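pasting for the record
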Amino acid sequence: MTETPSADHQDSQAPSPVDFSDRRHRPGKIIALHLNYPSRIAQRGRSPKFPGYFLKAGSSVSRSGEAIERPEGTELLAYEGEIALVLGETCRRVSPEEGWSKVSGITAANDWGLYDLRHADKGSNLKNKSGDGYTPLGPNVIPAAGLDPTQLRVRTWVNGELTQDDTTEGLAFPFGQLIADLSQLMTLEAGDVILTGTPAGSSVAQPGDVVEVEVDAPQAPGTPSTGRLITPVRSSGRTLADFGAQPQVDDTQREEAWGSREAAGLAPQPAAASGEARGAGEGAGVEPYRYVPDTPAADRTLLTTELRAKIEETAVATITAQLRKRGIDNATIDGVRPTHPGQRILGYAKTLRYVPNREDLFKRFGGGFNAQKRAMDTVEPDDVVVMEARGETGTGTLGDVLALRAQVRGATAVVTDGGVRDSAAVAEVGLQVYSNGAHPAVLGRRHIPWEVGGTIACGGTTVQPGDIIIGDDDGVVVVPPALLAEVVDAAWEQEQQDAWVYEQVEAGHPVDGLFPPNAEWKSKYEQYRQSRVNQGER
């Protein structure tokens, strides 16, 4: 059995098996961080100014393959895949620049928590987080020497399905800062373990599930990996005795345990409430992340089969004209051109906003599971992802990987008033993309992904989530949902009349009085339309 790596043998890059649950090698302290990954911060709706921690009992440590038990009568046993830092030497009052040098190795961790008991300890997380088996570690430790702490990756699978996937690029609190901060007041000892936070994707596991966590360094030579840390979940068969705190859950705990209200089976709530106070536990004393104005919920029943058929036969130019007749002149997304001419689009707007790059903010919000990735990872069938990029064409707002992700999730198209990088590869994906052109630069040159689901400006017009987006070779128009049926019916009728007028011109009639039709020609058209109705045609 190999012991925890020490500073004396950091030169080896081969991951080493370690059984942290063995009492001889058990960590003296297990210190866990509340929030660190931008993806989790965004999900929680709270942005900490400084690191916040809690302790976990040494007896909670287990090894790969050992089961975790969920007490009878509880429902919210949640997993959190994390990167664990193993201290290689005792240290006190180190600087952030020195902090990483005190780490001998990294390993995979699963910071299990029983949300049913979060109420019991006023934020200490003692009963919630320190049950037997609630801190599996391993199976291997990757030596820290030579690793870039900003280029590590953590992934989690539940029953073989990937649920967490993020990197350490852009963490709110770099690893060196954590060690420096903790060592201001306490001595960190060789063998202590620091759990560094979990990314978005943490959720609830059920008895019978198998949860696996792996940490690796994709950019390092040989891609060193911890291997998969495996934790089967089973029921304990025992309820909690009544001389201690009893399980207690509410919708806030369900939302936070599952990761979202939707995943927990709860009705949506206004986005403005996302920064309000939460229950005890993670993120105490932090400020709201960002206020997102409330926007109307999308009515995803609007696009009926009949309306879709009419829209398919109707030009965007005609729809635009009908909107103008109703006083809406500014409804087109200007300046964008399609990747695939001849391929129409129709769907519900899913909005994404970029703000101008500012280096300090990009460091916090640009990396990891940022707003751009969240938008593509939450696409629903029939969505059109509409991006506000301020008409900035000097960088890309979309590449082939995210275009493919949107397509796999069921998106109809992407519309951006910015640029597209890897344009040939994006075209090969097949998803229709309207953009302001191609540019090779990455997102961070000009943009920070900032907000999903707000009201945005794209190509000079306002777009709200749930607006109807229609596009053809002429361009893209935004139709307010409340006007959709009225506008489409009128535009379709206009298309039928225009087609009839075209036939008359083709037959040799002069356009004077015919286009637009005067009273005589209108009467002839009505007779024509009635004859078609009598024949059972539309």
